[in-house]
């Protein structure tokens, strides 16, 4: 049976899609069959991993209700089922549970790029085996994460990873350290931060993954993701 992992933070701009796509690609390169789902109809996964025609008519909703959604192959072993819109019928919200059970028989991992979209977000969290929380080293995000940990099953939270970190910023250093101290003594992995690098911006622009590079900066980021992959 496949494992469901939701990448979750109620605050925007923390790099949920970046974290999702890099983890998914890492699993796929490790010979695991991986499916990415999203609760965001902007389907930003395309902008990270796909260079072809991203036009589609039938996505997650069609697949859940009629089993005729359009899967996009992003890499070897890595697939994406985009979302049409956020108008969810009661039938869809009921049937998505069966859909998740079905794809767990087809894929080793199902990663959910999650935004707070009412009922579907609750369902994804309930069905998840693990939760990964992306972070940004500012006060609002730190507070958001601490509040989030009060509202979800904290035993599912495997890791918190700080993204777009500026080592030259005293504000970032302070907030990163404070959150790390707040989590001290918990089983949650708190990784080294992922630096805000021009290299990563160019990587995303070229629809590449961190696993497709071999430079020093890439290896440092790869090691952070490898830490997360070890606990999921």
UniProtKB/TrEMBL annotation:
InterPro entries: AAA_dom, DNA_Partitioning_ATPase, P-loop_NTPase. CDD domains: ParAB_family. It holds the Pfam family AAA_31. Signal peptide: none annotated. Residues 3-154 form the AAA domain. PANTHER family: COBYRINIC ACID AC-DIAMIDE SYNTHASE, P-LOOP CONTAINING NUCLEOSIDE TRIPHOSPHATE HYDROLASE. This is AAA family ATPase.
């Amino acid at each position: 049976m496949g494992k469901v992992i939701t990448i979750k933070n109620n605050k925007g701009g923390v790099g949920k899609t970046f974290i999702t796509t890099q983890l998914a690609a890492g699993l796929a390169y490790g010979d695991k069959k991986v499916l990415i789902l999203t609760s965001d109809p902007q389907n930003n996964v395309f902008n990270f991993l796909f260079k072809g025609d991203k036009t589609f008519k039938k996505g997650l909703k069609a697949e859940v209700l009629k089993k005729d959604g359009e899967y996009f192959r992003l890499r070897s072993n890595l697939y994406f089922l985009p979302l049409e819109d956020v108008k969810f019928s009661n039938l869809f919200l009921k049937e998505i549970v069966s859909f998740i059970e079905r794809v767990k028989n087809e894929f080793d991992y199902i990663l959910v790029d999650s935004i707070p979209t009412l009922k579907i977000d609750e369902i994804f969290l309930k069905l998840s085996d693990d939760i990964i929380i992306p972070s940004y080293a500012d006060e609002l995000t730190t507070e958001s994460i601490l509040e989030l940990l009060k509202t979800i099953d904290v035993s599912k939270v495997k890791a918190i990873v700080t993204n777009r970190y500026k080592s030259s910023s005293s504000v970032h250093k302070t907030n990163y350290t404070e959150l790390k101290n707040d989590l001290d003594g918990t089983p949650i992995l708190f990784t080294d931060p992922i630096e805000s690098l021009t290299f990563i911006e160019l990587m995303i622009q070229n629809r590449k993954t961190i696993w497709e590079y071999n430079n020093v900066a890439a290896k440092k980021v790869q090691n952070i993701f490898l830490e997360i992959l070890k606990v999921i």
